[in-house]
Design a protein that fits this description.
- With 865 residues, the chain is an alpha+beta fold.
- It is built from 23 helices and 30 strands.
- The protein has four domains: 190 residues, no CATH class; 312 residues, Transferase(Phosphotransferase) domain 1 (Transferase(Phosphotransferase), domain 1), CATH 1.10.510.10; 198 residues, Nucleotide cyclase, GGDEF domain (Alpha-Beta Plaits, 2-Layer Sandwich), CATH 3.30.70.1230; 45 residues, no CATH class.
- The strands form eight sheets. Strands 21, 22, 23, 24, 25, 26, 27 and 28 form an eight-stranded mixed sheet that branches. Strands 2, 4, 6, 8, 10 and 11 form a six-stranded mixed sheet that branches.
- Belongs to the adenylyl cyclase class-4/guanylyl cyclase family.
Length: 865
């Protein structure tokens, strides 16, 4: 909807008295008029809500001359007023009659009111324009009471009884001054009668809990809603009880479940090297670095070093720890222990697979970790372990133990032999739980010695309070054992080192690791003080002051400067572990590249490179036609006679030397050697790579080959001359690859036959060319020919052929000569007509080059250059 105030960009507007919706033409300017809102209509107003608004109209003295010029007062005072001063006096002094009787004749401001125009009501606005001339409408447009009076009234106040259309509405304060309209406008937003969300429950306006729960609150629940809630709560309670009962049933079922029991027949012997010699995973009872002064009991036990046996169970390798028992009863206590272990699931805990309970084959079957125990890894000097990886090992152990303690289980046997490393270099804690199951029945003295030795070797890991019998295995005791593991990880040595354990006191602790300045930087601990402080905290003599494994995890993460993931550490370690192979790989790669180059060279000698590459990629090589190329044929004159004077090996040596010479020459030109058959040699230019200089390349190559043959020495007949004849011809050919097992790149067409005829009809040490080749070379220029004339060619009849003698030498002017001549790249002069019988002979004498033109033989086809 276009409203009156959209006609210009001023805050008020004025029209002549005759303006209407059909002709809303305003005055171009209205000088001397000030109109404004004193109390503006509110920005937001509800439907049917009344409000007061005040506005002011001031007519300045300059208004009246302009108004007289516009005939605004031509009806004033009944007869009209033409004097501005008189008009101003009349406006300010005349007393207006009642509203109903006020007209432009008897009242200056004879109509003042406020009315509205809903902008959304297009159909109710005439011609799309909303102006003060629209008559009142009680349902859509609101009009205030009309007022009259002089311009000196100043403040005009109107009561707007209410607006009835929601949305944006124009509020227009309208003045009729003599014969003109003046108005000021403001757009307000008309809101619904009630607004849900204004925090007022207007029940008298129709708001209630159903229509506006935000203001009036939620409605009270009905009986059926209350019943539904009660039923839902009962169902939830029943479901909760069922879930609890189900979990208890599963716990009970797991307690009595015997699927973990493995028959001895199900465990197959591992027949590989691992099964023959045992796993690297050792129950480390030996001490290769201990003193030789140990007792005989220790020596006997050391000779019986125990390895973790491996076996095959259901197609996978498992670790089998056999337990010596005289009797075994599957008691409730053992069932509870097995149930607790089976519930353990953590990436840093070795999983329990099952167990054998048949006497005498009682055993515990666990997950197999192929890298062996932590002790094996630390003692293996071939494995480079930087400190980032050592921190990763310690962190893995702390995470596994933290999970174990969080489930209410104490290890009690934590040693470096009971921490194993899987194929992803993740440390897993093993040998936890099942204390009753693991109990060994010792009978013979030798077994007793072994048991005592194993316990003695484990003394260093046992906390003082446990060793003294003050308490049994506990979480602080596991922390103490972990402190010894930290020493092992730092030193990469047994906790006893070179000490004789038989003479050590009961409260002995391994010395703290010391920083070695001789080792390289990567092998040094990045934070030795913090690391040693952690060890001291873990083996504190007061169990209550030792940190928990949760705290240890955070401490290790904090002091570790390399926050690398396990995969990054593994990759880094593997890089260092394989550095000694890099040089071998480089050498083998170099050899492989060299062999590939040899293979490519051999392949490219048999086939053109583009064709060979297509065959190697498995694509079909289609036959191809070439419009222009030049073919070279040559053979050795008197080769049969020469062969009769030579042995087979001498002939082979001769041809090898000859063709090696030829091959070295053709490498200098853009040509391709097609084949060699006996003493025959075939070369082409322009195939398979097209070139417009094919005749030039073949001709230059031919001259080089003939020159080389004149100097060629036969190895076994040095006094014999090696004479060759050469034939050249230019023309179109077709090419293609023939055969699969031994593919050959072949040329087909009359051009091949003609080139062969040029060779067979040639002469020793001469290059016999056809007219087509001659034409190509003559167009290029720079060659000396001799016309041989027309000769019979088998299959072709009479053909005019040429001898290619040499390239044209560069002839430069000399101080001792009277003239100079150069034919390189130029056409013959007009002095030598096409019927001249010419040949150019070049003689060099005393540094002066003389050109002698000798007319000797008529060549019917044209000039000899």
């Amino acid at each position: 909807v276009t409203t009156w105030h959209d006609l210009t960009n001023v805050n008020y507007h004025c029209w002549p008295y005759t303006a209407s919706a059909s002709s809303p033409i305003p005055f171009s300017s209205c000088p001397g008029i000030d109109i404004r809102w004193i109390i503006e209509p509110p920005d937001d107003i509800k439907v049917e809500q009344y409000f007061n608004t005040s506005y002011e109209l001031i007519l300045h003295p300059q208004f009246y001359p302009w108004a007289i010029s516009q005939s605004i007062f031509d009806a004033a005072n009944g007869t009209g007023i033409s004097d501005p001063a008189e008009a101003q006096q009349w406006c300010e002094t005349v007393v207006c009659p009642s509203v109903q009787k006020s007209t432009p004749d008897n009242c200056c401001i004879h109509h003042v009111n406020v009315h509205s125009c809903p902008l959304s009501e297009k159909d109710s606005v005439k011609d799309g324009l909303c102006g003060p001339w629209i008559p009142p409408s009680g349902s859509i447009f609101t009009h205030s009471q009309v007022m009259v009076g002089p311009p000196t009234t100043g403040n005009w106040t109107s009561l707007v009884a209410g607006l009835y259309t929601e949305g944006h509405t124009s509020i227009i304060a309208h003045f009729k001054v003599a014969k003109m309209h003046i108005a000021v406008e403001k757009t307000v937003h008309v809101l619904p009668k009630t607004v849900c969300g204004d925090e007022r429950c207007e029940d008298d306006e129709g708001e209630d809990c159903l229509t506006c729960p935000k203001d009036c609150g939620s409605c009270p629940l009905t009986d059926w809603e209350i019943a539904l809630i009660v039923v839902a709560l009962v169902i939830l309670a029943v479901i909760f009880i069922i879930i609890i009962a189900y979990f208890r049933y599963q716990q009970r079922k797991l307690l009595w479940d015997e699927s973990w029991i493995i028959s001895n027949d199900e465990i197959k012997e591992d027949i590989g090297l691992r099964g023959m010699f045992g796993s690297m995973l050792t129950v480390n009872t030996s001490d290769s670095r201990s003193s030789v002064n140990t007792s005989s009991m220790s020596d006997s036990a050391r000779r019986r070093q125990i390895f973790a046996n491996t076996a095959i169970y259901k197609g996978r390798t498992v670790a089998v720890k056999k337990i010596q028992k005289n009797d075994f009863k599957l008691s409730l206590e053992i069932r509870s222990e097995v149930k607790a272990v089976r519930e353990m699931d953590h990436p840093n805990l070795c999983k329990f697979v099952g167990g054998c309970i048949d006497i005498p084959d009682v055993a515990i079957v666990t997950e197999y970790c192929p890298k062996g125990s932590l002790n094996d890894v630390l003692l293996n000097d071939e494995i480079p372990l930087n400190w980032a990886f050592r921190f990763s090992l310690a962190s893995d152990i702390s995470r596994g133990m933290s999970y174990l303690h969080s489930r209410g289980m104490v290890h009690g046997r934590l040693t470096s032999s009971n921490c194993v490393v899987d194929d992803r270099w993740t440390v897993k804690v093993t040998d936890f739980g099942l204390p009753t199951y693991r109990a060994v029945d010792v009978t013979c003295d030798e077994d007793k010695q072994e048991q005592v030795y194993k316990e003695t070797a484990r003394d260093v890991y046992i906390a003082p309070e446990i060793r003294k019998g003050v308490t049994r295995s506990s979480c602080p005791g596991d922390v103490y054992s972990f402190s010894v593991l930290l020493v092992e990880i730092a030193n990469r040595n047994d906790p006893y080192g070179d000490e004789d354990r038989s003479v050590l006191p009961g409260d002995w602790k391994p010395p703290l690791p010391e920083e070695d300045a001789t080792v390289d930087k990567e092998s040094r601990c990045p934070c030795p003080f913090e690391y040693c402080s952690l060890i001291k905290d873990c083996w504190n003599n007061e169990p209550e002051e030792r940190p928990t494994f949760d705290t240890i995890k955070k401490t290790i993460y904090k002091i570790n400067p390399n926050k690398l993931s396990a995969v990054d550490l593994i990759m880094h370690m593997m890089e260092k572990y394989s550095k000694h192979l890099e040089s071998i790989v480089v050498d083998r790669t170099r050899d492989l590249v060299a062999e590939k180059q040899k293979t490519d060279k051999l392949l490219y000698s048999m086939l053109p490179k583009p064709v060979a590459d297509q065959l190697r990629q498995g694509t079909v090589v289609n036959a191809e036609s070439f419009d222009e190329c030049t073919i070279y044929f040559s053979d050795v004159v008197g080769f049969t006679t020469l062969s009769g004077k030579s042995t087979a090996m001498q002939v082979i040596a001769l041809l090898n030397k000859l063709y090696t010479t030829f091959d070295e020459i053709i490498d200098q030109f853009d040509v391709y050697k097609v084949e060699t058959i006996g003493d025959a040699y075939m070369v082409v230019s322009g195939v398979p790579i097209k070139t417009e200089f094919h005749a030039r390349e073949i001709s230059n190559m031919s001259l080089e080959i003939v020159a080389a043959c004149k100097k060629f020495v036969i190895p076994h007949l040095p006094d014999e001359l090696l004479q060759i004849r050469v034939g050249l011809h230019s023309g179109p050919v077709c090419t293609g690859v023939v055969g699969l097992k031994m593919p050959r790149y072949c040329l087909f067409g009359d051009t091949v036959n003609t080139a062969s005829r040029m060779e067979s009809n040639g002469a020793a040490y001469r290059i016999h060319i056809s007219s087509s080749t001659h034409d190509h070379l003559e167009m290029i220029g720079g060659y000396i020919f001799e016309c041989r004339g027309a000769i019979p060619i088998k299959g072709k009849g009479e053909m005019v052929t040429w001898w290619l003698l040499s390239k044209t030498p560069e002839i430069s002017s000399s101080s001792g000569s009277n003239f100079s001549m150069s034919t390189q790249g130029s056409r013959p002069s007009s002095a030598l007509s096409s019927h001249s019988k010419t040949k150019l002979v070049y003689v060099q004498e005393s540094g002066t080059v003389l050109s002698v033109v000798i007319f000797f033989k008529y060549c019917q086809t044209g000039l000899v250059t």
